[in-house]
Structures are given as C-alpha cells and as structure tokens.
Specification:
The protein is mostly helical and 97 residues long. The protein contains 5 helices and 2 strands, in the order H-H-H-H-H-E-E. Strands 1-2 form a two-stranded antiparallel sheet. The longest helix is centred in the middle third of the chain and has 11 residues. It starts with a helix and ends in a 12-residue tail after the last strand.
C-alpha cells in the first residue's frame, strides 16, 4: 500500500494510462537486501522519475543497487554547480511538487 501523498503525486504526474503501472512499480520497490523500500525511498523514486514510467523503473532498479543514489535524485537539485537539498522526503510530498 502506498502512502496517500504518493498516490496523489502519481495521479498528478503520470498519464492516466500509466498510473496503475506506476503504482505497481512503487508498491514492489525493494532495496539491495530485498526488503521493501521505505516510504522515503518510494517518495524519492517517484519524485526523481518526473512522471516518466521509464525513469521510475530505472530509479526503482537503482534502489536495489544503492538507495542513496535515489535519495540524491529525489531530494537534491544542482544549484550554482553544487547539489543542494531542496526537499525532505521523510515528510509527505506536497501538492506543489
């Protein structure tokens, strides 16, 4: 079961024909030891995907290798040539995201 904020994000960012697939990919997300991805990691993968199903698959695949890369992709943006944390996805995704 996905957190409500993630479901709202999927509904906003993914085409209607891809929403069920996106939700299924996020529900099945695991990390390198095979355990389920935390809510934070699911949020990071969703945000990092930018609404692209292909990118969502890539991000959830990356969770299985090194989840920290997905955190960087979801929570950080390059600002003035350096990565800066711009969101904390321990918290729910805002409706503005």
């Amino acid at each position: 079961m996905l957190p409500d904020d993630v479901m709202r994000y999927v509904a906003r960012k993914f085409d209607a024909a891809e929403r069920d697939a996106a939700a299924a990919i996020l529900c099945a997300a695991t990390i390198e030891d095979g355990s389920a991805a935390s809510s934070r990691l699911v949020r990071c993968a969703a945000v990092a995907s930018g609404g692209s199903l292909a990118r969502l698959r890539a991000e959830t695949d990356r969770l299985k290798v090194d989840w920290r890369d997905v955190v960087v992709a979801g929570e950080y943006d390059p600002i003035d040539g350096e990565l800066s944390r711009v969101r904390d996805l321990n918290d729910p995704i805002t409706d503005e995201a």
